[in-house]
Design a protein that fits this description.
binds pyridoxine-5'-phosphate, 8 strands, alpha/beta, 8-stranded parallel beta barrel, 11 helices, TIM Barrel, about 240 residues
Length: about 240
């Protein structure tokens, strides 16, 4: 299972002062040196953290792969066609949200998403869609022709953090991953994952890659980015045993 680090929060610190540091490009280099196998950024319509300049430079400097999360809008498609990141992940976006709040409702917006996926694939960009662990959504993704999906682990993470019924949520993620793999889709996952709740996800063999941002950058603020990334890579490689397993 590969780790892709979402470095949006590095840009969030920079934008807090509208300054030129810290630079997400430098952060990406450190993440890769520490063992990350992908770099993820979310180019939001409001540009609250990552800027177009970051995506352009990261496309030239990332030595692993660059995954750009974006809304399925014509503005974002144009940018992707120009910069050509290795992968685009389509996500829903609301102006007043703190972070992505749920998976994209592919079943509801199939027409528009279908057209965006086609345009991106025609530009030779790999495509993934961020969806909830819901079998109808996954079947629709397959019909639309996206090669990859990213399963939203947000509900699992929330229930784990609240000491709730996380086993039921992990089961949904696991079933979704298995179904997607059976349909021939590449399977990624992410959202809300931390050093504490990573294990149950890391045991799911069908998941090829995790996108993790907040928890890694939060730890990096205290112990440094190199150590924070290495610790997550190690946990993913050797997940701890789960209670009852
Ligand atoms: N995957 C997607 C699609 C996201 O939008 C985000 C947050 O930007 C993440 C993964 C990473 O989530 P977190 O910052 O909670 O690790």
């Amino acid at each position: 299972m590969r780790l892709a680090v979402n470095i949006d929060h590095i840009a969030t610190i920079r934008e807090a002062r509208k300054a030129d540091e810290p630079d997400p490009v430098a952060a990406a280099v450190l993440c890769e040196l520490a063992g990350a196998q992908g770099i993820t950024v979310h180019l939001r319509s409001d540009r609250r953290h990552i800027q177009d300049r970051d995506v352009e430079l990261l496309r030239k400097t990332a030595t692993t792969h660059l995954n750009v999360e974006m809304a399925a809008t014509s503005e974002m498609v144009r940018i992707a066609q120009t910069i050509k990141p290795h992968r685009v992940t389509l996500v829903p976006e609301r102006r007043d949200e703190l972070t992505t709040e749920g998976g994209l409702d592919v079943a509801l917006h199939a027409g528009n998403i279908d057209s965006v996926v086609k345009q991106l694939l025609e530009a030779n960009i790999d495509v993934s869609i961020f969806v909830d662990p819901d079998l109808e959504q996954i079947r629709t993704c397959h019909k639309i022709g996206t090669p990859k999906i990213e399963i939203n682990t947000g509900k699992y993470a929330d229930s784990w953090n609240a000491r709730g019924r996380w086993q039921a949520e992990i089961e949904k993620v696991s079933l979704a991953a298995r179904a997607a793999k059976k349909l021939g889709l590449g399977v990624f996952a992410g959202h809300g994952l931390t050093y504490r709740n990573i294990d149950a996800i890391a045991w799911i063999a069908e998941i090829e890659e995790l996108n993790i941002g907040h928890s890694i950058i939060a730890r990096a603020a205290l112990v440094g980015l190199d150590k924070a990334v290495r610790e997550m890579v190690e946990l993913m490689r050797n997940p701890r045993r789960l209670p009852g397993k």
